[in-house]
From TrEMBL:
Residue spans crossing the bilayer: none
Recorded family membership: Belongs to the polysaccharide lyase 1 family.
Signal peptide limits: 1-28
Localization (cell): Secreted
Record organism: Kibdelosporangium persicum
Location of the Pectate lyase domain: 47-252
Keywords: Carbohydrate metabolism, Lyase, Polysaccharide degradation, Secreted, Signal
Primary localization class, coarse: secreted
Pfam family, one: Pectate_lyase_4
The protein's name in its UniProt record: Extracellular pectate lyase A (Modular protein) cellulose-binding
């Protein structure tokens, strides 16, 4: 597998459309935390707290909403209703490949330092995961399918978020970043999110749809048979779309969406199979962290074997 490590700052203050950095030989990408959630002090969730295993909605909700740091092991399928709050300093991690949260979703609101890993989200009534007014959040190795609104939505001044190695199946509005063109007073200078090594399998739109965040980093994701579009940069956003694998995706990325004006989008090192070429333009702020970049042509293989539940 061909990869390269990109050191913080090597991209420069602004990225011009069409910049190309050729990947170099290296080892396989690890499942460790990378991207924006490493910034601002990093993301450790419940840290070294003694793990507690939950098998019921009441136990799950009680543990998630505790004021103390907690490592919460989700065992089996747990049905919840509505959006249930997740407090600061929490790790939620599924046991095995079958751990599931169904019917409702997680509301990471006014919180910091939260990790959600290895959980199957199905049939949520609002959002599967909503992040708002929160910082230092890592959403990793989950699977999302057949829900109502957003799968992973990040909004309202949230910052320092990484969404990695997740699988999204048969869903429409996959990932919104920034909920409104009129919320610039809260969102400018924030909404900095990294999306990497996610697998979008037959989903429709918002992978992600971005407002205000700059730089937003979308790298090494696998887009398979996307219905409407892949990535949209709108309303003052700056998005780096790098090293992704687009297959059977007519509109891989573009600027502007609906009534939202065009943002900036820099695309480089992407791989296209039976897909359109996309619409890029403008410049994007520097990526401040180091990261390991797969060769785009290898992304289908690495992501399809590594994304989703039961891999960690």
């Amino acid at each position: 597998m061909s990869m390269k490590t990109v050191r913080a700052g090597v991209i420069g203050v602004l990225l011009a459309a069409g910049t190309v950095l050729a990947p170099q030989p290296a080892s396989a990408a690890p499942f460790d935390l990378a991207g924006w959630a490493t910034q601002g002090g990093g993301t450790t969730g419940g840290g070294n707290a003694s793990p507690v295993t939950v098998t019921s909605s009441s136990a799950l909700i009680s543990a998630m909403q505790s004021s103390s740091p907690a490592v919460i092991r989700v065992s089996g399928s747990i049905a919840i209703s509505g959006m249930q709050k997740v407090a600061s300093n929490k790790t939620l991690i599924g046991v095995g490949s079958t751990a599931a949260i169904t019917g409702g979703g997680l509301n990471i609101a006014n919180a910091s330092n939260v990790i959600v890993r290895n959980i199957n989200f199905r049939g949520w009534s609002d959002d599967a995961i909503n992040v708002q007014y929160s910082t230092r959040v890592w959403i990793d190795h989950n699977q999302f399918s057949n829900g109502n609104d957003g799968a992973v939505d990040v909004k309202r001044a949230s910052d320092y978020v990484t969404v990695s190695w997740n699988k999204f199946i048969d869903h429409d509005k996959t990932m919104l970043l920034g909920h409104s063109d009129s919320n610039g007073g809260e969102d400018r200078g924030k909404l900095r999110v990294t999306y990497h090594h996610n697998w979008f399998a037959g989903t429709n739109q918002r992978h992600p749809r971005v407002r205000f965040g700059n730089p937003v980093h979308v790298y090494n994701n696998y887009y398979a048979s996307i219905g409407s579009y892949g990535v949209a940069s709108t309303m003052e956003a700056g998005v780096l779309v790098e090293g992704n694998y687009f297959e059977n995706t007519e509109d891989p990325f573009h600027r502007g969406e609906g009534s939202s004006p065009a943002g900036s989008l820099v695309a480089r090192n992407n791989h296209f199979v039976n897909s359109g070429s996309g619409d890029a333009g403008g410049s994007v702020r520097s990526i401040p962290y180091s990261y390991t970049l797969d060769s785009a042509s290898s992304v289908k293989s690495s992501v399809s074997s590594g994304a989703g539940t039961g891999r960690i």
